[in-house]
Design goal:
single chain; alpha+beta; Rossmann fold; OB fold (Dihydrolipoamide Acetyltransferase, E2P); 6-stranded mixed β-sheet; 5-stranded antiparallel β-sheet; 8 helices; elongated
């Protein structure tokens, strides 16, 4: 296990910048998830840590040792890719033990290590099969087993579950989390799936446009998103946003919308009267009430089993509600809603959170 320090890392492809100065410290034994949309630079950063991409500027240190110029094989890390990258002519046991055989490890020791890893991953009965005889989930477990037997300082996961169906992804998420708790190894996991990020991470690193937007525990990003990007990316369905102006009258604060209606908010000392703001509220926090201050038109209703997602039009803007109340299935054209004050988020004209 090892800590990883990333300092002022930049990456350019020719004259095109991809990463714009990333600073991040990953503690020994921590599970970090890099999350963001396609093209945000998360996989590029992971590949730079692995040594598969050159660093344009900045420094990467593993266990206090600068590794910018070290080849991948000397960094003592193991990587699990989206593609399983298994040797088709080798058995499961041979695939898992390949790196150990390259190191001239004794056969008895190889058998012991492979047996331990296969037991953790439920591969005991599959050791003599070849990859073509395995399911997608089994192949992914073999790829993870191949990484585990190396006993590296850190594990790097590059969207390892993207090729699996939804049910299998759920199962594999649980297995990865249990495996991390058992091994206690430093892990960096890349995904575009915010559900994976929320369920797996000790800390999430939210990235957008090659810039780290926020770093924190999963519920910190959910409860106190640093900006509009994080607020909209974390959470499913995503947060609702309504543009307006911050107004203060007789000591009471509110957000006034274009049609003149207002929503009461707690006062923000950082805002001035008539400042442009964006009001945010998560779909699960919106309350349906006959006496609600706002009337919204119903455009689509999606029963999900556990709850119901309602797609509405509020002030001509798309707006969503997530509710457990099945009576809304009988609602025809409009619904009245209200916004609890303690569930509201405010963002300034630059899109930054205002507390």
């Amino acid at each position: 296990m090892a800590s990883i320090d990333i300092s002022a890392i930049k990456k350019n492809y020719g004259h095109f910048p991809v990463l714009h100065g990333v600073d991040l410290t990953i503690e020994d034994g921590e599970f970090i998830v890099l999350v963001g949309p396609s093209g945000c630079g998360k996989s590029t950063l992971l590949r730079m840590i692995a040594g598969l991409e050159a660093v344009t500027s900045g420094e990467i240190a593993i266990e206090g040792r600068r590794v910018n110029d070290l080849p991948p094989k000397d960094r003592d890390i193991a990587m699990v890719f989206q593609s399983y990258a298994l040797y088709p002519h080798m058995t499961v046991a041979d695939n898992m033990s390949y790196s150990l055989r390259l190191r001239k490890t004794k056969k008895e020791r190889i058998a012991e290590i492979v047996a331990g890893a296969s037991s953790k991953l439920g591969l005991d009965t599959l050791l003599q099969r070849r990859p073509k005889a395995l399911s997608g989930g089994q192949r992914q477990r073999v790829a993870m087993g191949r990484a585990i037997v190396r006993q590296p300082k850190a594990f790097l996961f590059d969207e390892p579950l993207s090729n699996l169906d939804a049910r299998l992804r759920e199962q594999m998420r649980a297995e990865i989390k249990k495996l991390h708790k058992e091994l206690g190894a430093t892990s960096i996991y890349v995904t575009h799936d915010q559900i994976e990020a929320m369920t797996l991470a000790d800390r999430i690193v939210a990235m957008h446009g090659g810039v780290v937007q926020q770093v924190g525990a999963p519920l910190d990003l959910y409860d106190r998103p640093a900006n509009l990007f994080v607020a909209g990316f974390i959470g499913s369905p995503g947060m609702n946003f309504l543009d307006g102006h911050y107004v203060v009258e007789n000591g009471a604060a509110a957000v006034r919308f274009a049609n003149g209606t207002t929503v009461a908010v707690t006062p923000r000392t950082a805002l001035m009267h008539e400042d442009k703001v964006t009001l945010g509220i998560r779909p699960e926090h919106v309350q349906i009430s006959p006496s609600g201050a706002f009337e919204a038109g119903i455009e689509l209703v999606e029963p999900t089993g556990f709850g119901i997602i309602m797609h509405l039009s509020l002030h001509g803007l798309p707006f969503k509600i997530f509710t457990l109340d099945r009576s809304v299935l009988n609602t025809e054209s409009t619904v009245r809603v209200e916004f609890p004050t303690d569930s509201l988020h405010l963002f300034d004209g630059e899109g930054q959170r205002v507390d």
